[in-house]
Amino acid sequence: MKKGFGKRTSNSESLNDIISQVLKAQNLEAPLLDKQAEDAWHKVGGDAFKKFTTKVEARKGVLYLSLSSSVVRNELMMAKSLIIKNLNKELGTDVVKDVVFL
């Protein structure tokens, strides 16, 4: 008879679920999601807007983008809902509720 690890029991949890529970318990989930939202902007915005973005900061579901061009700021304001949609798609969940252009 083989000894060692047996089959998973029904009370086992995935590693992803355990990590999520630990993050929630330590109040680290929101800062992690904010950081992921900041990183997602660089992917969603791409090189076209990267050179005009001077600062990216996310807090409590709001992404704050400091921009060096008022023309770019106006263009992005017009596409705000699409930007939010694409950011959340990149993140795989509805993290970003609003984008503020500074």
Mind explaining what this structure looks like?
13% of the residues are buried. The chain has helices at 15-25, 29-50, 70-78, 80-91; strands at residues 53-59, 62-67, 98-101. The chain contains 4 helices and 3 strands, in the order H-H-E-E-H-H-E. The chain is elongated, with a radius of gyration of 19 Å. The mean pLDDT is 82. Helix 2 crosses helix 4. Helix content is 53%, strand content 17%. It has a domain at 34-101: GMP Synthetase, Chain A, domain 3 (2-Layer Sandwich). It has a 3-stranded mixed beta sheet with strand order 1-2-3. It is of the alpha+beta class and 102 residues long.
Q: What's the quick description here?
A:
The chain has 102 residues and is α+β, with helices and mostly antiparallel strands.
Overall 3D shape: elongated
Strand % is 15-25%
- CATH T-level fold name of the domain at 34-101: GMP Synthetase, Chain A, domain 3
The total beta strand count reads: 3
What is the terminal-to-terminal distance?
A: 67 Å
Order of helices and strands: HHEEHHE
Poorly predicted regions: none
Q: Using the 3D structure, state the CATH architecture of the domain at 34-101.
A: 2-Layer Sandwich
Strand line-up in the sheet with most strands:
1-2-3
Q: At the first level of CATH, what is the class of the domain at 34-101?
A: Alpha Beta
Please tally the helical runs, counting DSSP H or I stretches of 4 or more residues. Answer: 4
Please summarize the sheet with the most strands: 3 strands, mixed
* Cα Rg: 19 Å
Structural class: alpha+beta
Mean pLDDT: 82
Helix content: 40-55%
